Amino acid sequence: MNQRSKLARLIVTAAIVCPTALFAQATRQYLSQPLITTIYTADPSAHVFNGKIYIYPSHDIDAGVPENDMGDHFAMRDYHILSMNSISGPVTDHGVALDIKNIPWAGRQLWAPDCAYKNGTYFLYFPVKDKNDVFRIGVATSKNPAGPFKAEPQPMKGSFSIDPAVFTDTDGKTYMYFGGIWGGQLQRWASGKYDANGSKTDLQKDNEPALSCKVVKLKANMKEFDGAVKDVVILDSTGKPFLGKDHDRRFFEGSWMHKYHGKYYFTYSTGDTHYLAYAIGDHPFGPFRYKGIFLKPVQGWTTHHSIVEFKGKWYLFYHDTQLSGKTHLRNIKVTPLTHRKDGSIAMIDPFK
Predict the structure, then answer these.
(1) Tens digit of pLDDT for each residue in 227-257?
(2) Looking at 114, 163, 202, 253, which residue is catalytic?
């Protein structure tokens, strides 16, 4: 069965399970189509290794967990790594690269991962709740970008929250950006220690600066933090940080970093307002000046992405819920991304 036939079958199945999905399919024309239809995938972290594109996504499953604002229904249990020789070519699913049962300290929920390479080793970074239901970030290694990966026996010391995004600069130094509010638990670390009874959403201080994404330099072994975790400071056009009530612009989750013409582009999701936004700085640690949004809301509650250059062109990898119509059963996509001459990013509409 070819990809188009599989897509048609999944659309019909989704319509039976969720009739509203059928209406969406009939009335909306999507900018791009799912890269793979045999499994549900989300949160695509794309990298170019050995001349190929490797994608490190979440593997969505229907675990039968009731939907709630804390994201318990996102109950992923393993990772599949995908690869492509070309943007328009076929996608290879390399099978299970890491299973939660092989992570000694893990409890539940394998959320959005990322991968990096150094000195012959590939490092897969992943957030998962420990046995006390607290999100930590782990690392697993492999000699093959497609895995399988072997997890370290303990989470990275000093790690917390979700969505690790790892960026290696042109000078060889590597940085990790991480964090997410609401179900990502970042707000429960506001005091520097985890508060199990803390807020379920954000700081709940609308007129004070919003919570920030975190950034930390990694040691040469790529398994440890090198120095203190810092705030990713995003400033508005007047040089002030966003307030907690500014849901259209403040950080929520899903950070990414790419470098273009010597500038550092920090991109992220605004979460409950469903935008992808960007800010530009002169250093991996920032500060970053907010520039606007570059992806309008996709179908589905979450929006999560990566940006990669391949053969001289730039691409945005993202996800939506075209196949299922369900917020926790997503599918990854790709579309060209354009940097304008002034350095701004052209707006992308996920619908034609």
Answers:
(1) 999 999 999 999 999 999 999 999 999 999 9
(2) 253
